[in-house]
Write a structure and sequence with these properties.
Blueprint (H helix, E strand, L loop, with lengths): L8 H4 L7 E4 L3 E7 L3 H6 L15 E6 L5 E10 L2 E7 L3 H10 L7 E4 L3 E7 L3 H4 L9 E4 L2 E5 L8 E6 L3 H6 L4 E2 L2 H10 L37 H9 L5 E9 L8 E4 L2 E10 L2 E7 H8 L5 E3 L2 E5 L10
Parallel strand pairs: 1-11
Antiparallel strand pairs: 1-7, 2-5, 2-6, 3-4, 4-5, 7-10, 8-9, 9-10, 12-15, 12-17, 13-14, 13-16, 14-15, 16-17
């Protein structure tokens, strides 16, 4: 497993703790039960629901009919119910959109209000909870579940636990309170998008935001909403932009600021945290900058792309 201590420690300027935990108060949980829960989700999401179960989590997205981003979420099965770990502020919107597709499907939509989501990160996170570096692998823990992040093992684990004893369960496995800025620095350095903070609803497309490289799209499953554009983008090689980590020199720009190269628009800043951020960049300008062309800047601050180890621009 790669860690930021090697290839891009210069981008975050710190070493990682052994096992830190943080409660993700910005996350909420939608539940989907009922005998038709698998077939219902299979026709909607970008990933293969047949891969999800009590011992495997997946990352997936719900798209518009035109293949544009609406929501992304993690899916894990607990008992006979799927839990969708999603953005808390947009939970009701996701629930309403799912209910519109219900039709005659025998499913039960709900919310797990007594449960919360935790992130565990650091070099010892996976081993402390007894998991391997296998994206999505999961185990029951207490009355909930813990799983290796299905995007990249490097970011650590996620846990769905009862809100009251949740932190104590992880503390019992050796976790200590984490630092939000440290977790953000790790996420950004790995190029992992964080929902609508990094992707524009009804405008962003999955492949520009690394879903293909981070196990968020299944190319062999049947049809789902938005599949046509997603597949066409891949097979016609239409990816011209990518969400990439960047390091700033000077005062960091604000989210939404335009990135330029020699007076030409080269992209847009998304998340900013400390001296790093994520930016959606046009690949032609990234390549030019790497070969001595015009440098990238935003709001008067020079920026340097820090592609993570998994990044393949032509993939």
């Amino acid at each position: 497993m790669h860690t930021p201590n090697s290839e891009y420690s210069h981008c975050i300027g710190q070493t990682m703790p052994e096992f830190y935990q943080i409660f993700l108060e910005e996350r909420g949980l939608i539940t989907i039960g009922g005998p038709d829960r698998r077939s219902f989700l299979q026709g909607l999401i970008s990933n293969d629901i047949e891969r999800a179960g009590p011992h495997r989590a997946i990352w997936a997205a719900l798209l518009t009919a035109q293949g544009k981003y609406l929501h992304d979420f993690f899916i894990i099965e607990v008992g006979d119910v799927f839990y969708l770990d999603c953005e808390a502020e947009r939970l009701m919107d996701l629930g309403q959109r799912l209910s519109r597709f219900k039709l005659r499907a025998d499913i039960d939509l709900g919310m797990a209000q007594d449960f919360g989501v935790w992130a565990g990160y650091g070099d010892g996170a996976l081993s402390s909870v007894g998991l391997s570096a296998d994206p999505g692998i999961a185990e029951a823990i207490g009355d909930g579940v813990v799983y290796c992040d299905p995007r990249l093992p490097d970011i650590g684990v996620r846990a769905i636990l009862p809100k009251s004893p949740g932190a104590g369960i992880l503390e019992g496995l050796g976790a200590v309170p984490g630092d939000r800025e440290g977790f953000e620095a790790l996420r950004i350095s790995l190029g992992l998008p964080d929902g609508s903070r990094d992707m524009i609803v009804e405008k962003s497309i999955l492949l520009e935001n690394n879903f293909d490289s981070l196990h968020g799209v299944d190319w062999n499953k049947g049809c789902y909403v938005g599949q046509e554009l997603t597949a066409r983008t891949k097979y016609r090689g239409l990816i011209k932009k990518r969400l990439l980590p960047v390091a700033f020199e000077g005062v960091p720009p604000k989210a939404g600021a335009i990135v330029s190269a020699g007076g030409r628009e080269a992209g847009e800043i998304r998340t900013v945290s400390g001296g790093m951020g994520l930016a959606l960049l046009r690949l032609e300008f990234v390549e030019e900058a790497e070969h001595g062309g015009a440098g990238l800047e935003s709001d008067g601050s020079a920026l340097t792309p820090c592609p993570p180890y998994w990044y393949a621009p032509n993939k």
